Amino acid sequence: MKTFKSHPIGIDQGEEVLFSEFADGGQMWTGDGPRERRTEIAFSQPFRSVPVVQIGVSLWDVDTSSALRAEVQAEEVTAEGFYAVFRTWSDTRIARIRVAWTAIGEVANEDDWDIS
Q1: Closest among 52, 30, 34 to 43, alpha carbons compared
Q2: Residue 72 has pLDDT above 90, yes or no
Q3: pTM of the predicted model, to two decimals?
Q4: DSSP string spanning 34-81?
Q5: Residue 18 domain-assigned (yes or no)
Q6: What burial class does residue 110 get, using C-beta atoms within 10 Å of its C-beta: 0-12 exposed, 13-18 middle, 19+ buried?
Q7: Domain of residue 41, CATH code
């Protein structure tokens, strides 16, 4: 569980197309075996500390001739942003993926003192 001090809490959210590879025959569509795409996401403003990030697929365009094998994760989360990571493997063919994300965490307060 993440607990917060007495600072204000901010919520940032967004959507991002991680790839669209059907039209140009990219590896997610034509390849097989382990494949990965990483996209850097920046928050609209930095959090005071590392936030909690929830991420999920909001659109997928996939070939249904094989099993759908996929995972999406938020990795390397910092106060400024994170990487949205999509992975698939075996003979799964993915044409396009869009993710939606929400970050919740402490934000700076106008009453904070900068003692540096």
Answers
A1: 52
A2: yes
A3: 0.88
A4: -EEEEEEEE-SS--SSPPEEEEEEEEEEE-SSS----EEEEES--SSE
A5: yes
A6: exposed
A7: 2.60.40.2080
Report d(CA 16, CA 41) in Å as an integer. Answer: 8
Nearest-angstrom CA–CA distance, 65 and 81? 36
Distance CA 52, CA 11 (A): 10
Range of the domain at 84: 9-106
Mean pLDDT of 16-20: 95
For 78-94, how does the pLDDT look when each residue is reduced to its tens digit (9 = 90+)? 999 999 999 999 999 99
Residues 88, 57: Cα–Cα separation, whole Å: 13
